[in-house]
């Protein structure tokens, strides 16, 4: 009986180790896929513009930037994504960039309005640092009024703590 328990413990340990390794591999793969998706989205905008012969960019959603609970600081990953975005869109004419901040349902209504504005303003500030003219950027907060996912799970809440950028 002891041998069986010892083997089972060894098996459980090996399974846990395999799960941990798979988690790391999946996270690394997902990060690479997300980066490629962002690049391909920008390339498709570029190709659409070059093939149409128009010097003006087509409107598109430049993507999402996610935030921690009750936070509005810009992560290094978001800074890198914004740098790529600005480099790409500066190759074209565009009318405006709209930065829209969002929150999950946690917190008070007035607190979420302020937090969503602060998230949008943080991205706005980064865009200014990267050379986007202030006259071409608008930002505002939508609080928790436009969720992308349900607000009753950890993943859903995380998906809703975001800033969306629209280029027109």
TrEMBL record:
Main location: membrane
Keyword check for Glycoprotein: no
Stored InterPro entries: Bact_OuterMem_StrucFunc, OMP_bac, OmpA-like, OmpA-like_sf
Span of domain OmpA-like: 53-168
Entries under Pfam families matching the protein: OmpA (PF00691)
Subcellular location: Cell outer membrane
Keyword annotations of the record: Cell outer membrane, Membrane
Domain of life: Bacteria
GO cellular component: cell outer membrane
Record's keyword annotation contains rRNA processing: no
SUPFAM superfamilies: OmpA-like (SSF103088)
Protein name (Swiss-Prot/TrEMBL): OmpA family protein
Native source species: Endomicrobium proavitum
Organism taxonomic ancestry: Bacteria, Pseudomonadati, Elusimicrobiota, Endomicrobiia, Endomicrobiales
């Amino acid at each position: 009986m002891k041998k069986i328990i010892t083997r089972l413990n060894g098996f459980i340990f090996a399974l846990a180790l395999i799960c941990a390794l798979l988690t790391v591999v999946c996270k690394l793969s997902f990060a690479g896929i997300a980066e490629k998706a962002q690049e391909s989205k920008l390339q498709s905008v570029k190709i659409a513009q070059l093939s149409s012969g128009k010097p003006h960019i087509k409107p598109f959603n430049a993507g999402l930037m996610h935030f921690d609970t009750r936070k509005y600081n810009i992560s290094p990953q978001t800074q890198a994504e914004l740098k790529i975005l600005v480099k790409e869109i500066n190759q074209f004419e565009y009318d405006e960039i709209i930065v829209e901040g969002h929150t999950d349902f946690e917190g008070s209504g007035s607190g979420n309005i302020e937090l969503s504005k602060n998230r949008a303003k943080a991205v706005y500030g980064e865009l200014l640092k990267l050379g986007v003219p202030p006259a071409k950027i608008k930002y505002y907060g939508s609080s928790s009024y436009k969720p992308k996912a349900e607000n009753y799970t950890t993943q859903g809440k995380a998906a809703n703590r975001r800033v969306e950028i629209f280029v027109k």
